[in-house]
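pls ignore typos typing on phone
iron/sulfur cluster + seq
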Amino acid sequence: MNATESDILVEVNDLKMHFPVLRGLLKRQVASVQAVDGVSFKIRRGETLGLVGESGCGKTTTGRCVLRLYDPTSGQIVFDGHDITHLKKQQIRPIRREISLIFQDPFSSLDPRQTAGQIVGEPMKIHKLTQNDSEYQDTLAELFKTVGLDPAMLDRVPHEFSGGQRQRIGIARALASQPSLIVCDEPISALDVSIQAQIINLLQELQEGNEGLTYLFIAHDLSVVRHISDRVAVMYLGRIVELTEAVNLFDNPKHPYTRALLSAVPIADPVFEESREWIPLEGEVPSPLNPPSGCTFHPRCQFVMEKCKKISPVLKETEPGHEVACHLVK
Ligand code: SF4
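k done
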């Protein structure tokens, strides 16, 4: 990745998030869930980094650590040149203005008792971003128009909107604090297929019209991140196993897990469809409570070697801008 220090908005170094499992009256720790186990990546200003993997791979936990909704077990999160890993509650407030979240479920993430205007306006009030009521109302109306909603609907409550419209409200709320980074946590997975493309297009248009707006886009579906991401990181059981440009990931996947995920993605090209390899992905993701030894993918990998069961492969650059963690890939 050829980027200068000032191009980098987010830098995550060896991030670990282990949740303790407590038992008994004395709440003794008996184990820990290794949800994120040594994740490192950088996101450039104005870039979209896709973070993909099956359910339980740690992608949402990684996003919540970047948002500082969780206190990481170890590692470092640098945002816009500032180490935010262990900031206290009061110190984190200005950062919260800079980093927004779009939730997965637009049905449960909006307070049913608030009007759409109150929901979208809340971050502006918290961060005191407008000088007076008329500026507040004008900004609200502008935000509604930006996400394709009629400002005449400001006084309606969430149940009066469709799923797609509710997610537009969620996006307007995320934009209201004028953030430089938005963590999009599976923002289309709860929506009808017919609406999904509209929301992806809206997110892309917002980024094009807002220089420097950066996304960490979390999804379990590779076909979704393909269209929106500049680069993609594939996660498996708390670790990144492959990270490269989105186009390169689809044209030249190297990690057996990525190849298996990709072979299940439908491609609307019969010639390509016929020629591509089919790699079955069998079994479930093992529990992060008791991850397999060595390469954690080894129980599901059809290329497994003895070495894989003992030694964990390190994520390393195999070609410029293409990092892979696999003993097979030199
Ligand atoms: Fe498969 Fe071994 Fe590579 Fe892991 S390190 S993905 S088990 S070949």
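The chain has one domain: 5-98+179-324. The longest strand covers residues 28-44. more later
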